[in-house]
Design brief:
single chain; 254 residues; alpha/beta; Spore Coat Polysaccharide Biosynthesis Protein SpsA, Chain A; seven-stranded mixed β-sheet; 10 helices; globular
Length: 254
């Protein structure tokens, strides 16, 4: 059985929501929700937070979590993860977004499972997608869409609705004529694939769409897309916290 670790990159600085990882959600900081949900995975051996901020570092330490301090000049969350795991024994590394407080252990395990199957040994990265059921989500540029081949390997990710529906006369016809998938931003890497990825130069498609996973595709890396029936809410602004709280309150326990 490979050794699998989860890493949650967490920065304090954010143009839209400074201090986001420490935002209070029903009495707990958001980073703790993410950490504890990641710990509920049945396949992950250990979870770490990788941060560049002492406030986040101390918060994680105080609730008993594993945390690694990383340099502030590291440009992306993926680079922060690669820095954090360079001296950690792990065969598979899971990049768990620090602003996904509704991510579940089951979802994380679904993304990991392709690496445990012999027939899928040509995978570099795996990720999740969920079927889009409303027009607003389909046309929202903040929601990333993905298309994949018959073996569920990603062909392209975009902020635009893909594939384009030529026969649709109105927006509400798109979902009647085609099937569309929202990308959920969790990434599972083979160790060597993670370090290969962070050493690649930023690609042209990545620069246009502002989606770093396109760098992997442009360089021939294979991304397996696992379809899930569960969705999450990424927290980008303070108003998103209210949506998360509303969902958590609807659950029988939290």
């Amino acid at each position: 059985m490979p050794r699998i670790i989860g890493v949650i990159p967490a920065r304090y600085a954010s143009s839209r929501f400074p201090g986001k990882p420490l935002a209070d959600i029903l009495g707990k900081p958001m980073i703790r929700w993410v950490y504890e949900n990641a710990m509920s995975s049945k396949l992950i051996n250990d979870v770490y937070v990788a941060t560049d901020d002492e406030r986040i570092f101390n918060t994680v330490k105080n609730f008993g979590g594993n945390v690694i301090m990383t340099p502030s000049e590291i440009p992306t969350g993926t680079d922060r993860i690669a820095y954090a795991v360079r001296n950690i024994d792990a065969d598979i590394i899971v990049n768990i977004q620090g602003d996904e407080p509704l991510i579940s252990g089951d979802m994380i395990d679904s993304a990991i499972e392709p690496f445990l199957k012999e027939e899928d040994n040509d995978i570099d990265i795996s990720t999740l997608a969920v079927k889009i059921t409303d027009v607003e989500t389909l046309f929202n540029p903040n929601v990333v869409k993905v298309v994949f081949d018959k073996k569920n390997f990603a062909l392209y990710f975009s902020r635009s609705p893909i594939p384009f529906c030529r026969d649709a006369q109105r927006r509400d016809e798109w979902l009647k004529l085609g099937v569309y998938y929202k990308h959920i931003g969790i990434y599972v890497y083979k160790r060597n694939s993670l370090f290969k990825f962070v050493n690649l130069k930023t690609s042209k498609l990545e620069e246009l769409e502002k989606l770093e996973q396109l760098r992997a595709i442009e360089n021939g890396m294979r991304i397996k897309v696992v379809i899930t029936d569960k969705d999450t809410i990424g927290v980008d602004t303070f108003s998103d916290i209210e949506n998360v709280v509303s969902i958590l309150k609807q659950k029988t326990s939290f």
